Amino acid sequence: MERNELQPRLRQALSGASAQRAWTAASGQRFMAVLLLLAALFVFFSLTQERFFTSGNIDALLTSASILWVVSIGLTFVMIAGGFDLSLGSMLALTGVALGSLFNDLSLPIGPAILLTLALGLVLGGGVNGFLIGRIGLSFLVVTLGTLILFQGALNLWSDTKTEQVISPLLDSLAFDALLGVPVPVWIMAAVFLVALYVQRSTYFGRDIYAVGGSPDAARLSGIKVSRTIIAVYAMAGLLAALGGVLQVARIGAASPLVGEALIFDAAAAVLLGGTSFAGGVGGVGGTAVGVLFLATLQNGLSVSGVESFWQQIITGAILIAAVLLDKVQREGWSGLRRAGGRVT
Amino acid sequence: MSEPALEVRGMHKSYGGVRALRGVDMHLWPGEVHALVGENGSGKSTLLRIVAGQLVPDSGRLWLDGRELRFRDASQAIAAGIATVTQETTLVPDLSVTENIFLGHRKVRARYGIDWRATRARAREALARLGLTGIDPGAPVRRLRPDEQQLVEIARAISIDARVLILDEPTSSLSDDEVEGLFKVVRKMARQDVAVVFVSHRIGEVFEIADRATILRDGQVVGSEPMERYDRSRMIQLMTGRALEELTLDRGRHMAKDPVLRVRGLSVPGRVHDASLEVGRGEIVGLAGLLGAGRSELLEALFGVHGRARGAVEVGGVPVRHARPLEAMSGGLAYVPADRKNLGLVLDMSVRENVLMARTARQARVRHPRRSAEQRAVGDSMREFRILAGSQLASVSQLSGGNQQKVVLAKWLGTQPRVVLMDEPTRGVDVGAKAEIYRLLNRAKEDGVGIVVSSSETPELLLLCDRILVMYRGRIVAALSREEATEGLIARYGMGHG
Fold first, then answer.
1. Contact A215/B335, CB-based, under 8 Å?
2. Partner A, chain B 39-68, Cβ-Cβ below 8 Å
3. CATH number attached to the domain at A62-328
4. Residue B381 lies inside a defined structural domain of this protein
5. Which residue intervals of B223-350 are DSSP H helices?
6. What is the helix (H) or strand (E) element at residue B397, kind and residue range?
7. Which pTM does this prediction carry?
8. Which of A221, A278, A338 is the mutation pick for testing B, counting most B CBs within 10 A?
9. 3-state class (DSSP) for residue A343
10. Residue B245: DSSP 8-state
C-alpha cells in the first residue's frame, strides 16, 4: 500500500510532468515486449532469407493475416469487456456459406449479398450471443460454446458439407487487386483498425467497454448501460467475423463449411499477446495488431525458410506463455512468481 | 513476562527508492493487546506483511518466543504461530464453519478419510474457548454475518495455537455492538497468553482495547508506550506530526423550508419497511443503526441499485423513478457506495476516466469526448478535492484509500446532484483524509445539496449531521435533532430499545 501511494509522487518529483506521461504511456503498453520481439523477428528473417523482405512477400504476409486481423479486433473488444466469444470461427464459416447461398441460390447482386452477410454477423453476434449474455445474464463461455456448436451444425445443414464456388469479379478484386500499389485486403485491415482505434479511444462507448470489463457493478452504478455495452461488443465481434467470412470467400473463391475451425485459438493468442487479458478492463486493438503481425510474420518467415509449419505452433505457444510470464514479472517482480505458487486465485 | 512473544529489530524495507520502513523495532509481550497505529503510508501495512511472512524485508531480524526466524512465505509464518485476520475474509464461503477452521490437512483422521464427528467436536471446542457458542459449526460460512465470519477466522487462529494474532482493521465493517463482541473475544485470546496486534483507524477503539500502542510515522517508530501514557490528542499529534486542527463545521441550525428529497413509504422486501424521510436543501441527514439494520439497503433502494423497491421518491418536488441507477441520476441523485474498490471505482482505469464516468453517462455513446475540456474539468476537480495523484492518467489503484475516496466524491459531486447518498463515506481512510472529506461534504452542503450519510461510526454522524435517523431492522425508529442526539440515545434506539 505504501508503495502505491509513494511511487507516483516520487516519480513526479523526479521527472516532471512530461517525462511522467511518457513513462506511464510506455509502461502502460503491455505488448511492448512482443513488439520488440516482432521487430527482432523481422530483422532476423530479413537478414537470413533474401526472399523475405521483398514487396511481394510483405504483401503476401499482410494479406494472409487479414482474416485473423479483423476477427481478432472484434474479439479484443469482447475481451476488454470481460467476455469471450468461442463462436467467432464457426460464425465466420456460417456467414461465408450465407454469402455463397445469397449470391448463387438467390442470385442477389454481390453488393447487397455482402451487406446482408455483414448484417447476419451483426445479428448473430448481438442478437444471439450478446442478448443471451448481456441481457439475460448467461455465462459467456456456455453461450458461445453453444452457438459455436449450433452454428457449425447449421452451416453443415445449409451447405450440405459441400464447398460451393462463388465467382464474382468484385469478390475477386477484394482479395487480389491493389489500390495505389497496396493490396485491397491491406486497405481493409487499415480501415478496420482505424475505426476500431477511434471507437476504443475517442468515444464514450469505448470507455464504457473498459469500465464494464473492469467492474460491471461500478459501471452500472455510474449510469453506464452495461447490458447494451455487452450486446454491442458481441455485435461488433459478429460483424467483424462476418467481414472475415466475406474475405475468406473472396480469397478461396468459394464458400466452404470447413474454414475457421481453429481460428478462435489464433485470435485468442493474438489478443493475449497484445496485452488484453481474460480478466477484462485492460488492453486494446493496438496490441492486438502487434499480436496478429507477430503470428503472421512468424508463419511467413518460417515457411519462407522452409521450416515445417508445426514449429510455428510450438514457438507461438511458448511465446504466448513467456509473454504473460514477463507481464507478471514486470508488475510484481520475481518474488511474485514464487509467492503465487500453490495459490488458486 | 520473561521474553517477548514477538520481537522485531531494525526492519528496513524500500520500494524502488521509497523507504517504507526505516529501522523499526517492536516488542510484543504474551497476553497483551498491542495497538499499531499510524496514518496510511506510515509503514503499518509493510511491517505487518513482513511479520506475516508476506514480504521479505531488506534488512532486520525477527524473534518469536526468543527464537530467531526468517520467513520465506506466509505459510511459514502461519506454521510458526503468527495468524493474521484482515477485513477481507479468507474463508471458503460454501464450506462449513468446521471445515473452514480446520482447512487443509488438519482435520481429525479416521482409519479411512476424515473423522467428522471428532473434527466437529474440536471446532465446537475452539469456538467455545472464545465464547462463541452461538455459531453452529455445521453451518456454511456463507450464511454467517460478516462479523461472525471474522470471529470464525479468529477461532481458526486459536485452533492452530497461534502465538501472535494480527488483527488488521478488523472493526472497519462492524457495527458498535459487533465491535463489542469482537473485543470480548480479543480479551479472551489475550488471557490465553496470545500476543494480539490490533490495527484500527478508530482512536476510541484503540483506547478501549489496547494495553500498549506503537505509533509509526514515515516508516519510523515515534512512540511505543503503555496506553496510560497517551491521550487522544497526543496520539493523533504523534501520528500526523502536527497538532490536531479543530474541526469547525457550520451545521446550520434551521431545517430548510423546502425539502429537496422526499421519500414516502419506501420498502424493499425483507430489508426496508415503509421508510419515509425528508432532506432539506443544505441539510445533512444521518442514518444510524447496526449493520444489517437496513441503512445500506435504504440508500441502494433510493438509487435503484437492485430495482426491487416500492415507494415514492421526489427530488425538488418532482417524482423520480428509481428502478435503475441511470433513472435516479437523471432525477438528480448521486450515490457513493460503501464498497469503494468494487462499486465506487473501476480500479484499472485512470483518475480522469473515473472522475468523468458518472457525469458523462448521459452523453451519446458515439460522441467524441473533448480532450482539452475534459482535462481542464478533471484538473479543476483534482485541485478542488485535493486529490493527490501522479497525474490524471494515473490508475486509481495506485492511490491511497483517502485519495480514492476523494476521486469518488469528485465523480459524484461533479454530476451537479441535488441529493447525495453516501454509505460509509470515510471507511478505511486516515485521519487527515477524513477531515478533508468532511470539509468537502460541508462545501456541498453550503451549495444547497441535500446529503444523506449512512455510517456505523456514531461520532462521525454526531459531528456531521443536522438530523440523525436511527434504523432498526429495516424501519426508521427514531429521528433525532442535532441537539437531542447522543451516542447513548442512538445506541439505545439502534438496539431496538425504543
1. no
2. 40-43, 45-46, 54, 56
3. 1.10.3470
4. yes
5. 232-240, 295-303, 325-330
6. none
7. 0.73
8. A221
9. coil
10. P
Q: Answer yes or no: do A215 and B367 touch at CB < 8 A.
A: no
| Residue B163 DSSP symbol | S
Contact B431, B384 (CB under 8 A): no
C-alpha cell at B329: 441520476
Where in chain A are the domains? 62-328
Q: Is the dihedral of CA B286, B290, B291, B292 positive or negative?
A: negative
Domains contained in chain B, number = 2
Encode pLDDT of B281-339 as tens digits: 889 999 998 777 889 999 999 999 987 888 999 998 899 988 899 999 999 999 999 88
ipTM > 0.90 (yes/no): no
Residue B235 to residues A304, B29, B214: CA-CA distances in angstroms? 73, 21, 10
Residue (of B331, B327, B329, B305) closest to B318 by Cα position: B331
Whether the pLDDT of residue B43 is over 80: the answer is yes
Among A10, A202, A223, beta carbon nearest to B18: A10
| A24/B390 CB distance under 8 A | yes
Q: Establish if B309 belongs to a structural domain.
A: yes
Per-residue burial over A294-312, b = 16 or more CB atoms within 10 Å of its CB, e = otherwise = bbbbbbbbbbbeeeeeeeb
**B305 interfacial to chain A (CB closer than 8 Å):** yes
- Note whether B361 contacts A205, CB cutoff 8 Å: no
Residue B126 in any domain: the answer is: yes
Give the CATH number for residue B162.
Answer: 3.40.50.300
pLDDT interval class at A339 (50, 70, 90):
low
Instruction: Tell which residue, A114, A79, A111, A63, has the closest CA to residue A243.
Output: A114
Long-range contacts made by residues B21-26, C-beta under 8 angstroms, separation at least 24? B21/B46, B21/B47, B21/B50, B21/B57, B21/B60, B21/B219, B22/B218, B22/B219, B22/B220, B23/B60, B23/B220, B24/B60, B24/B216, B24/B219, B24/B220, B24/B221, B25/B221, B25/B224, B26/B214, B26/B221, B26/B224
Residues in chain A: 345
pLDDT for res A29: 63
Give the chain B residue whose CA is nearest to the CA of A341.
Answer: B73
Domain that holds residue B339: 259-494
* Cβ-count burial B365-398 (b if 16+ within 10 Å, e if not): beeebeeeebeebbeebbeebebbbbbbbbbbeb
The DSSP secondary-structure symbol of B332 reads: T
- How many angstroms separate the Cα of A246 from the Cα of each of A22, A88, A112, A301? 40, 13, 12, 26
Cα–Cα dist B383/A141, whole Å:
44
Record: contact B346-A224, CB cut-off 8 A: no
Question: CA-CA distance, B342 to B404, in Å (whole number)?
Answer: 12
Closest CA to A20 of B368, B350, B20: B350
Look at strands A254-255 and A164-165 and give their pairing: antiparallel
Q: Are strands B33-37 and B195-199 parallel, antiparallel or unpaired?
A: parallel
Q: How far is CA B293 from the centre of its chain?
A: 17
